[in-house]
Amino acid sequence: MKQILILAKKDILLEFRGKEITFSVLIFAILALIIFNFSLGSEDIKRLAPGILWAIFSFAGILHMDHTFAPEKADDTLEGLRTCPIAPEAIYFSKVLSGFFFMFAIEIITFIIFSVLFNLNVLIPQIFLVSLLATIGFVSAGTLFAAIALNTRAQELVLPLLFLPTATPLIIAAVTTTTEALSGKPLSVSWLGIMLAFDILFLAVSYIVFEYAIEE
Amino acid sequence: MVKAKGIRKSFGSKIVLRGIDLQVSEGETLAIFGPNGAGKTTLLKILATAVKPSAGDVIISDIPVKREPLKARRHLALVTHQTYLYGQLTVRENLDLYSRIYQVKDIPERITELAEKLGFLERLSDRANTLSRGLKQRVSIARALLHKPRLLLLDEPESGLDQEAISRLWGIVKEDNRTIILTTHNLEWGLASSDKLAILTRGNIKLLRETAGISEAEIKELYSEFVKK
Question: Does position B228 have pLDDT exceeding 90, yes or no?
């Protein structure tokens, strides 16, 4: 656990120093919200809000995941970590932790801006729960696929090709439960269960296979 | 200290190492010579556990690397052309990070000690991506020495360093009766620095012997002979 925190802290510090991706992803999210704000009428917004938000988060997620291993590329520091007494799983969980930190922060900022622009409060506990479960799923699957894509020639193509079809059930569950939350209905246990199962499945599978994904 | 038996490595259909046997005792220095593409770097990376061999076994300090890689890694360090430094972090932050990973005691003192010895004390607060190639190499060596490894694997350590830096560095890396395996293209320096030498070509070790009693001219002749074959 200590090593996971050491590595996650390093990733967070590198992102704050480099400001390479989180800032770009945030700009993308804000720009998308502004475009939707101009193109949609206020009567449509409650019906379309879940789709808008999760479409933005899906693309933002891919942009962010694509960058997961970028800090390790410049001087092959991933190889350096492979010669250290660190379990490969610790590297994986540190990336999941730092990825979650940034993705969740982007989502919270997006929710705030969305609430202001569309005059629709999405800052409610049910949506936070959905966001939490979906983001864990996004980063757990995305980190594994980013590691697999790392050793391929068309990294930018491989990641979305692997990620989007796999994450479809998660995205559908997130959209459905967000719709329920905005309609004031209780969240479906079955959809929440799908998200939880997705999270557990990908964390468990990645725990087993991540070592092979980062092998040279 | 280090035993390698039957090490083979292929990347797809390309065979890089074809069955390497090595044995290096505690405190010994082995210099591996060979042309580009001979498999020297791959061999070092396998010994450093960064790359898994396709076949064969490595034992470091009586630890079977296949079964206990994390335990073996506590005893070794690898220095290559890649410095393994994060450019956006300062030199001190980089060394602090690796110290924490290796659970080094008295981290600030150890960093200062190595920075003083390797001559970059005044650059500790600079970001790694602002350093020259030679200085990065020195920081990379400090990174490797933080946890006082018993086995040091050096891939062409003299590249990017001037003569004075090489001499200074050599005195530091040889401290604590450390075992060293290095690769180099510099036959003269490699011969003077090592107790044993090996010539590796096309994935095979063609010669493995003590350096005592062999002249520079002889090694040059042997090298040309094996490389041409």
Answer: no
Residue numbers in A near B89 (CB within 8 A): 10, 13-14, 17
> Rounded to whole angstroms, what are the CA distances from B60 to A210, B32, B53, B116?
25, 18, 15, 30
Q: Which residue segment(s) compose the domain that B124 sits in?
A: 86-148
Residue B188 has pLDDT above 90, yes or no: no
**Is residue A40 a contact partner of residue A48, using CB atoms and an 8 Å limit?**
yes
- Report pLDDT digits (tens) over A5-64: 999 999 999 888 877 788 888 888 889 888 888 887 777 787 888 898 999 999 888 888
- What pLDDT was estimated at residue A65? 85
Residue B50 domain-assigned (yes or no) = no
**Which of A6, A74, A216 faces B101 most closely, judged by CB atoms?**
A6
Backbone angles phi, psi at B201, to 5 degrees: -135, 140
In this complex, do A83 and B88 lie within 8 Å of one another by their Cβ atoms? no
User: What is the rounded average pLDDT of the residues B48-69?
Assistant: 91
Asked if the C-beta of B100 comes within 8 angstroms of chain A's C-beta atoms, the answer is yes
Query: A70 is written with which tokens?
Result: 């970028």
| ipTM of model | 0.85
Indicate whether B217 pLDDT > 90: no
Neighboring chain A residues of B52 at a CB cutoff of 8 Å: 215
Give me the residue from B51, B78, B97 closest to A6, CB to CB: B97
Closest residue on chain B to A84 (Cα)? B73
* HSE-CB of A123 using CA atoms within 13 angstroms: 11
When pLDDT is cut at 50, 70 and 90, the band that residue B28 belongs to is very high
CA B104 to chain centre: 20
Q: How many domains does chain A have?
A: 1
Here the tokens at position A172 are 């559908």
**Chain A environment of B54 (Cβ under 8 Å):** none
Whether B181 is in a domain gets the answer: no
Structurally, chain B folds into a number of domains equal to 1
Q: For residue A48, what are the CA distances in angstroms to A51, A113, B38, B162?
A: 5, 16, 61, 65
Find the domain containing A101 and state its range.
2-213
